[in-house]
Amino acid sequence: MSSLLAVETLTRRFGGLVAVNKVTLDLHLGEVHAVIGTNGAGKSTLINMLSGEIEASDGRITLNGEDITTRAQFRRALAGVGRSYQRTTIFPEFTVLENCRLAAQAAAPKPWAIWQSSQSCEYSNGAAREALEAAGLGTVAGRVAGTLSHGAKRQLEVAMCLATKPRVLLLDEPLAGMGAEETERMLSLLANLKATHAILLVEHDMDAVFRIADRITVMVNGTVIATGDPASIRVNPEVRTAYLGEDH
Ligand SMILES: Nc1ncnc2c1ncn2[C@@H]1O[C@H](COP(=O)(O)OP(=O)(O)OP(=O)(O)O)[C@@H](O)[C@H]1O
To answer: Measured in angstroms, how far is the CA atom of residue 177 from the centroid of ligand 1?
Structure first.
C-alpha cells in the first residue's frame, strides 16, 4: 500500500534540545496511525511540523510523493492536510454551522471568496453541512457552539477540520477530557472516517488507542522506539519498560 503522507528522518531542534529526532513514519488511507509517548516525547512538535505550523530542522515530509517540507501551512491545508488542536479553537458565540462554514471558507479553493459573506457562499455551506453530517452533528447545526457539551465541541473541531476537505487528518488528543459515552462516539466517528482518510492520532487514552489504531508508533524523548500493530506494541519489552508500565 503506498503512503499518502510520509515522513523521513524528521528532526526539530529548539536550541540545544532535540524535540523530534530523526522520526520516520508514514500514513496510509484506511489506517489510524497512533503516536504515543510520555509528556514531552515530541508528539505535538511532530504534528506541528506535519501541519506546517513550525519548520522542520531536518528531514523530509512528502504528500502523495510530493515534497511539502517547506510548504506554508495554508498551502498544505489546501493540498489536503487537516488538523485538529489540543485546545478548543471554536468561536463559542457562533452557531455550529457558522463555525464549520468559516473553516470551510478559510480553506476554500477560491481564497478571494473570503471577502464574500460566508452565509451566501454555496461552496462553504455545502462543505460545512457535509462535514457536520459526517461528524454526527447534523441535528445541532443551529445551536450556539458555546452551549455544546465538551464532547460535542471536540466533535465540532473534527467537523471543522473535515470542512476543509482534507485527505490526511492530524488529530491532537481528540479524546482529552471526554467521558465514556463521548469517547465511544468519537471512536466510532474515527472508525468511519478512516475509510476515506489517512489519520494520525496523538492520544493519551491508551485503552482507546489500542482499540482504534491499526498501527502505533511509540516515542521517547523525541525518538521512535517502536512501530507496529497494537498486538506487537503491547508485548514489546522496550515499550513496556519505557512507557506502558506493567498494566498493559
Ligand atoms: N516552542 C518550543 N520552544 C522550546 N522547547 C519546546 C517548544 N515546544 C516544545 N518544546 C520542548 O520540546 C519537547 C517536546 O514537546 P512536545 O510538546 O512536542 O511533547 P509532547 O509529546 O506533545 O508532550 P505532551 O504529551 O505533554 O503534549 C519538550 O521538551 C518541550 O519542552
So the answer is: 20
Spell out a b/e string for 76-111, using b for 16 or more CB atoms within 10 Å of the CB, else e.
bbbbbbbbbbeebebeeeebbbbbbbbbbbbbbeee
State if residue 19 touches ligand 1 by the CB under 6 angstroms criterion. Answer: yes
Residues 244 and 142 in one domain: no
Q: Which domain holds residue 75?
A: 1-80+166-248
* pLDDT tens digits, 47-105: 999 999 999 999 999 999 999 999 998 889 888 999 887 666 789 999 999 999 988 88
Residues 156 and 189 in one domain: no
**pTM for the full predicted model:** 0.90
* Contact 39 CB / ligand 1 (< 6 Å): yes
Q: Residue 205: which H helix or E strand, with range?
A: none
Answer yes or no: is the C-beta of 41 below 6 A from any ligand 1 atom.
yes
172 lines ligand 1 (CB under 6 A): no
